[in-house]
Design goal:
With about 110 residues, this protein is mainly α. The protein folds into two domains: about 60 residues, no CATH class; about 35 residues, no CATH class. About 30% of the residues lie in helices and about 5% in strands. The protein is built from four helices and two strands. A two-stranded antiparallel ribbon has the order 1-2. A hairpin with a 3-residue loop joins strand 1 and strand 2. The mean pLDDT is about 95. This is PPM-type phosphatase domain-containing protein. GO terms for molecular function: protein serine/threonine phosphatase activity. It comes from Trifolium medium.
Length: about 110
Amino acid sequence: MYASIAVSRDHKPDQTDERQRIEDAGGFVMWAGTWRVGGVLAVSRAFGDRLLKQYVVADPEIQEEKVDSSLEFLILASDGLWDVVTNEEAVAMIKPIGDAEEAAKRLMQEAYQR
């Protein structure tokens, strides 16, 4: 198994702090196959959602990580990947791939198939 370090947490509307923030702003969270803001969006932080922007904020959570020469790559992805692929699975899938674009395609294909 390969080592991975999560450098962020998923922002989901069923998390107590996120749900409270949404409700304090006048929004609601409901179950619609998964927990969703306004019954629509399955993430509680994002940018670009015009209809839900007063509830789904783009404010980042900042976390610092020390990076040294042992870091081989960084995977930036959304819930479309992380809802179906674990951190360790993602690392194992792309570690043998030397090209960043090919690695991204591999992750996308895997998420789509699952």
